[in-house]
Amino acid sequence: MHEAASGMAWNLPxxxxxxxxxxxxxxxxxxxxxxxxxSVVRYIGVAFPIAYHQLQRPMYAIVISAVxxxxxxxxxxxxxxxxxxxxxxSGNTSVCYENFTExxxxxxxxxxxxxxxxxxxxxxxxxxxxxxxxxxxxxxRPRISQIQKxxxxxxxxxxxxxxxxxxxxYNTSHLLGYFQGDSPRWRYYTLLLSTFNTCIDPIIFYxxxxxxxxxxxxxxxxxHRRGASGIQRQATSSS
Length: 239
Hints:
Blueprint: H1 2-5, H2 14-47, H3 49-55, H4 58-76, H5 78-84, H6 102-139, H7 146-180, H8 187-212, H9 220-238
């Protein structure tokens, strides 16, 4: 807010710029990785309801969340390296994390390319696969009502739409910037979409939990678990 009120000029200490940049970008990538984790959890819940019930422990969620934060923080630590490494630091303190020198770009652009593949493309492919499999499995189950199918599918498509609209454009600027040898100017506009993603995520997580909650009497997963348990009991009794 201070930067915007100052006409995008950075008048605060330089270390504050590093902290602000690190927090800003790590939040974006943590958000996309959490969306991917949610997609995997939903796929396991639909495809393997018994295994999902056995794996439903708070400790697993804590560990996965911690790993995601560590991955995001490790990648976004480049904001400190670019601005404070003796051979890379620039004397220009009037702007924050902009107007990079050629030496800084030599380090930053390859790292951004790695961001595109590791923190965007791979999570996107995982999410697409998991949600498409969820949709196919739900439509193959005759016991699930049409309304429940539509809710679950709408949730899946909505999450994928957020991923494609909010996450992909900004990361695409990394790919193009690597081949152009510079930071595309239009990437600042895609940052608006990435920031908007952090506002939408709580809504997605809320409706996701209410739609797929496994303790609900009307839960899709609970019905699957009951059906699978019944089949397993029949198989045991017959054997």
